[in-house]
Design goal:
This protein is of the alpha/beta class. The chain has three domains: 200 residues, NAD(P)-binding Rossmann-like Domain (Rossmann fold, 3-Layer(aba) Sandwich); 87 residues, NAD(P)-binding Rossmann-like Domain (Rossmann fold), CATH 3.40.50; 135 residues, 3-Layer(aba) Sandwich (Rossmann fold). It contains 17 helices and 14 strands. The strands form three sheets. The chain has a six-stranded parallel β-sheet, with helices on both faces. It has a six-stranded parallel β-sheet with strand order 11-10-9-12-13-14. Strand 13, helix 17 and strand 14 form a beta-alpha-beta unit. Helix 5 packs parallel to helix 6.
């Protein structure tokens, strides 16, 4: 079987590479010529554990190739995945111009039956728009070529995307054609041999499932952050509360860690898009509006703690920041809490010395040379007045605190991810501030 994947960003590249890993011939398409030239040289545009080696292996075996020509990619392809970006418009709705552009290009160039699958995160009703755009182009050509449209949302976690694709919790597929169902069953058979479930449903439900899943996870995060803030006020310890509720199997332990808010390419825009979809149907998603509001406020919590410690006088202070990416195991800084925290610190007159294991180059696209980029985690501490832990990279979990204390001007740590033990930090002579705990107790 041969398939084409349009969009060689995070979702498209992982999707195409993992399909090639199980023996499927894959052509990845992107309009960015420089990106395609780099991919053909084996240069990967994103950081994702295990991906680079897999790309190289399958290119060498001739199962994975890259091109800027959709027309070329469509030759002998039975399935085409649309995995282009759907950035949020100013009103929060998903911008479908890239998705529909691919659909129109398919209509202009396809010669035989094609199953067009939306892999991008798209709002309810997108498949119908894709179908209409494709059919319009076929009508202009005066040809009658059969095709189907399906929805196959991705549920990949950045930092674990390859593993998630190869060993999925579930595969959700929305379609309305027996022919499309047989194709998708054949395509995903290698991933279901070990019992990973495939859930077939109507297209509208599949489109909704993706948004509902991400919004549910975002809700858990904002709920815990809201409770954490209350814990500080009433004198409770959110770390104990988390253990207490996480042992309830109905709640579980995932996504209930307090922190400084969620970021990334999915949760923020998907929550906004679902709220917008509800508005279009004159329904108000009151819970999700609160989720978004809490998250926006939570990104300022660590700054407020730092500002309070220095009694509102941050002018001339140097703050060391450990972690820039929105989460570990990725260089993605889209909607990262670090950007909000750093911006507020600089607006208050502070200087920033930052270190991240993989996101330093990406940070320069967002922050330019407005901050100092340190060579390693300890270099960031030299002459700094405080340490702010923003992203919980593994290498930050067990630092040499004797060195940390010696390098800092003030022995104070602001832990935005609650990865250190409060009692140990105090025993080591640090002023320690985390999320959801009354540090005066």
């Amino acid at each position: 079987m041969k398939i084409a994947v349009v969009g060689s960003g995070y979702v498209g590249l992982v999707t195409g590479t993992c399909f090639s890993e199980v023996g499927i011939d894959v052509v990845c398409v992107d309009i960015d010529q420089k990106k395609i030239e780099n991919l053909n040289k084996g240069i990967i545009p994103i950081f994702e554990p295990g991906l680079e080696e897999m790309v190289h292996r399958n290119m060498k075996k001739g199962r994975l190739s890259f091109t800027t020509s959709l027309k070329e990619a469509l030759v002998n392809s039975e399935v085409l995945f649309i995995a282009v970006g759907t950035p949020p418009d100013e009103d929060g709705s998903a911008d479908l111009k890239y998705v529909l552009a691919v659909a129109r290009e398919c209509g202009k160039n396809m010669q035989d039956y094609l199953l067009v699958v939306t892999k991008s995160t798209v709002p309810v009703g997108t498949a119908a728009k894709v179908k209409a755009a494709l059919q319009e182009e076929l009508d202009k050509r005066g040809v009658d070529i059969p095709f189907d449209v399906a929805s196959n949302p991705e549920f990949l976690k950045e930092g674990a995307a390859v593993e998630d694709f190869l060993k999925p919790d579930r595969i959700v597929i929305g379609l309305d054609s027996p022919r499309a169902e047989e194709l998708m069953k054949s395509l995903y058979k290698p991933f279901t041999l070990n019992g990973h479930p495939v859930i077939f449903m109507d297209i509208t439900s599949a489109e909704m499932t993706k948004y509902a899943a991400n919004s549910m996870l975002a809700t858990k995060i904002s709920f815990m952050n809201d409770i954490a803030n209350l814990c500080e006020i009433v004198g409770a310890d959110i770390n104990m509360v988390r253990k207490g509720i996480g042992s309830d199997t109905r709640i579980g332990t995932k996504f209930i860690y307090p922190g400084i808010g969620y970021g990334g390419s999915c949760f923020p825009k998907d929550v906004q898009a679902l709220i917008r979809t509800a508005n279009e149907f004159r329904y108000e998603l009151r819970v999700l509006k609160a989720v978004e509001a809490v998250n926006n406020d939570q990104k300022s919590v660590l700054f407020n703690k730092i500002n309070g410690y220095f009694t509102g006088n941050l002018n001339g202070k140097t703050i060391a920041v450990w972690g820039l990416s929105f989460k570990p195991q990725t260089d993605d800084m889209r909607e990262a809490p670090s950007l909000v925290i750093i911006k507020k610190l600089m607006e208050a007159g502070a200087k920033i010395k930052a270190y991240d294991p993989v996101a330093m180059n990406e940070a320069k696209h967002h922050l330019g040379e407005s901050i100092t980029y340190s060579e390693d985690m300890y270099d960031a501490l030299i002459d700094a007045d405080a340490l702010a832990l923003v992203t919980e990279w593994p290498e930050f979990r067990f630092p040499n605190f004797k060195i940390v204390k010696k390098l800092l001007n003030n022995a104070v740590v602001f832990d935005g991810r609650n990865i250190y033990d409060r009692k140990e930090m105090k025993q080591n002579g640090f002023d320690y501030y985390c999320i959801g705990v009354d540090t005066e107790k």
